[in-house]
Amino acid sequence: MNAFQQRSSWPSSLLTGLLGWIGWIFIGPLIFGIEADFYMQSILAISSAIIQIISLRILFFALRMHRGIAIGIFWGALSALGLYAVASGIYPPLATDRLYWVLIYLYIGAPIGGFLSYFYRDDLKIHASNPENDQHAYGRDAHWLEPFGFGVVAYLIAFHPFGPVQLLINVIITGAVSGIAAAGASHFSPDSWKRSYLLLGILIIVLGTAQGAVTGLLFRNCEPHSITNFIQKGIAGGIITYLITFLRGRQLAFKEENGII
Description:
Structural class: mainly alpha
């Protein structure tokens, strides 16, 4: 069995941490409009992800994170604050905009802790449904990594950022995070909605436009005089992301209903 199909596996947990930390430690400064060093962000993201995931996974049952998502969120937030305290002592610029960085660390750490608990509990239900079989079928959940790629492709199409490397990186990261947000909307929306192309079209346009416009604003400091252009590109990226994600969700829902996956 592919370890990445099981969202509560060690490889999946590490990947969840890396995606969350790398994504938001770059997007956070864009949101607040604060200066950040690319290499510092990269080192902080990778080291924080590895330290947090290994610590929480080792202490998972001792911290009672298997008992509820709220408990996972609590320990995720607390561990993120600890990481910030250590990082700001090693890298003083983090203390310059302390409030913003604390909010960024909390926003990254808390959801990751929550996801670790959620993935464990969700996979446990799958295992309990067929305890005699070692080869569990995770259905559409086995495809949980696909939306990251959908978002990246969509935003590269919309932004075609063939200029500064930093812009390219920010577009890729923003697209990946946008993709997972679209995946959440698809995952938690009723499958009955996915059967109607009209309703699906409305959701894609409305959610894609709203989310895309917000992501376009993240690039307001790149070229202030081109902010309208960035918003338009963000909307295009958002709509394409939701289009691919919802159509894929519709396909997987059909396959799951018919026992194909």
